[in-house]
What we know:
Helices cover 19% and strands 26% of the residues. It is of the alpha/beta class and 359 residues long. The chain folds into two domains: 3-63 and 176-358, QueA-like; 67-150, Thrombin, subunit H (Beta Barrel), CATH 2.40.10.240. The strands form three sheets. The protein has a nine-stranded mixed sheet with strand order 2-1-17-16-14-3-12-13-15. Strands 5-6-7-10-9-8 form a six-stranded antiparallel beta barrel. Strands 4-11 form a two-stranded parallel ribbon. A hairpin with a 2-residue loop joins strand 6 and strand 7. It is globular. It starts with 26 loop residues before the first strand and ends with a strand. The mean pLDDT is 93.
Amino acid sequence: MRTADFNFDLPPALIAQHPAARRDASRLLVLDRSQNKTQHRLFPDLLEYLKPGDVLVLNNSRVIPARLRGTNAKTGGQFEILLLEENAKNDWWAMMKPGKRARVGTKIEINAPNSERGDIVATVVATNAEGHRRLEFSNTGNIANDLEAIGEIPLPPYIRRDPATPVGDKEDHERYQTVYAKPHGSVAAPTAGLHFTSVLLEKIRALDVEICFVTLHVGLGTFAPVKAGSLAEHVMHEERFEISDTSASAVNAAKREGRRVIAVGTTSIRVLESAASSRNEIAAGSGRTRIFIHPPYEFRIVDALVTNFHLPCSTLLMLVSAFATPGETHGRERILSAYAEAVRERYRFFSYGDAMLML
């Protein structure tokens, strides 16, 4: 299939720039895959579609304040740093702007206004084929512990903010994070989970729905458009995941007993399908995945999906297209039709936007 087949027109006004007034105040487009019918609901109406015995799987990775700003110690030039993955203490891969000026050996002073030790220094020690820089941090015990004080929430580029907004903008620090986020490690939010409140989760549990968590630390590549002309040429980014014994047991019991497994977000699907065996079971443990789900794909674990609306030509749009008609190739048409309906109905798109339930 061609990457261009997954393009669609979206009025810029429909790209959500701020979250809804309340987490669960967003809209919910319900797509019944068996009948190819849609309904327009509100997110709390999700309760009406859940059944006793369902297992709801959420990604509990926590977004880190991964965007840093610094100054070239020699020339005074300005850099923007986006931390991508920690290799070891004070050793990170990062994306940098402007990248060409970040040569090996470059030292960047990162402003740390509350530090008694002065500026933290990042030294470029290596580059890779993707153009990312490996940074070693000094004048800090552990840069990971300083991020809350000096870092910024790494909002996607389609969310516009005034550059003069102070670091630690309250709205984004609170709302670009799920209420159940725990292990630190993501540089982008698992956005389908942003709609859930603690109260809504308790109502779900009261329906005798089992809630369990997996962890996938979301990388920057999750939201990047596919640049290759065909899907077969695309090299998927790699992300770290972890599944607890408790979550694996809950999912496996549901599969054995014919109960539904409902994934919240494409990241949860990627974890579950990456860990799936030929017996339609998952194994507990940690690992790394490059799974690229696109039509046609036969899902082994997930029966229903809560997801947001995704970017044109993105791997996430390809994943939900595969889920629209598992094992077949025409899910793209079904999803693009649903998206066109969402545009007509003025749904809000992308990270801070509305949601879709695929049954």
